Amino acid sequence: MAEGLSPIEVGKEVAEHAKHDHVAHDRVVSIAEALLLAVVTVVAAWSGFSAAKWGTESSLNLAKASATRAKANRSFQQALTFRAADASFFNAWFTAYIAGNANSARVARKRFRPQYRVAFDAWLATRPFTNPNAPPGPQQMPQYKPSGEAASRLLDARADAYYAEGEHSAETSDQYIRTTVILASVLFLVGISSHFKIRAARLVLIGLGTALLLFAGILILNLPPPP
Questions:
Q1: Cβ contact 50:180 at 8 Å
Q2: Can you list the pairs that 208-216 forms with residues at least 24 positions away whose Cβ atoms lie under 8 Å?
């Protein structure tokens, strides 16, 4: 009797090897899914954290812009108050001077603020009563710098800078959120791939998830890190 396997036994061996190969391939696919899931989870957590940090940074910058703008408005109102007071004292002096009341003019001049007196003296030096090219009054002199006006301009510029930073932070936060949504799609694809019995379908989902993960990774690398 010839030694060897019968056709039936050969068929069983082939089936056993095919089954073993199928299990091995499924194990490789499962490992790939697990690795992809682990990487996506970490990257998604980082992206969400970055989005939250940039969102907080945006809120802080916008709050600083609002507070600084309020300070600028207060400084501007202070400058307007000084302008009105200076104009009132000047009118009193001018009325007394025109009327020839030297004592009243002297008293009115003493009420000038030190900063205004500098501009007033510079205005008098232009001989305004005889020089037709003289400025209309001390407030038109370059020496006139009412308190609060320069501070108002500086604070306004600072508020604009804070607001621009807040807008940039908000845009960065939105970009991180969009990246997180892409990564959530990868999690969904990996999650449903294990429910498919067809290996080709699982491989397609893994490949699509990997491509989305790489795309999200490129987006994150082009974004600034969290503050």
A1: no
A2: 209/36, 209/40, 210/36, 212/182, 212/183, 212/185, 212/186, 213/36, 213/39, 213/40, 213/43, 213/183, 213/186, 215/182, 216/43, 216/47, 216/179, 216/182, 216/183, 216/186
Residue 139 carries which side chain, given as an amino acid letter?
Q
Given a contact cutoff of 8 angstroms between Cβ atoms, the answer to whether 83 and 139 are in contact is yes
Q: Are 128 and 97 in contact (CB under 8 A)?
A: no
Pairwise CA distance, residues 138 & 135, whole Å? 7
- Specify the pTM: 0.70
Question: Which of 28, 30, 49 has the alpha carbon at shortest distance from 183?
Answer: 49
The pLDDT tens digits of the residues spanning 186-217 come to: 988 887 877 667 778 888 888 898 999 999 99
- 84-129 confidence digits (pLDDT tens): 999 999 999 999 999 999 999 899 999 999 889 999 999 999 999 8
Distances (CA, A) of 155 to 24, 71, 76, 81: 69, 7, 10, 18
